Fold this protein.
Amino acid sequence: MPKKYLSMLGMARRAGKLSMGHDMAMSSLRSHKAKLIIFAKDVSQRLIEEFDTASQKYYPSLQSIQIDDSMDDIYFALGYKAGVITVDDNNFSGRIKELIIQEESVYGN
C-alpha cells in the first residue's frame, strides 16, 4: 500500500516547495525557507548531526523527522534520489508531518 506522505511529497515537489539533496536543503535551511527537514532511514548519522547543528544555528524552532523509507523509496516516489529533503511551505509541512506520524503508528514503526 503506497504511503500517503510520499504522495504528498510528490505534490509538494510539483508545486516547487521541496529542496532535495544536501546542498539544496542546506541552502533552504540557511535562508529560512525550510519548514520541515525529512531524513531517509539510510542516511548517515553525520549528515543528521550536520543538519541538526545548522538548524540550531540558523533556525532553532525548525523540526526534523526521520522516515522509515530509504533513499531508493524516495527516488521511486519523487524521481530524485535524496537522503535529506526540506519542505519549504507551512501547509505542506504540517500535512506531511501529520501523515508521517499517522502512518508510522499504523505500520508499527
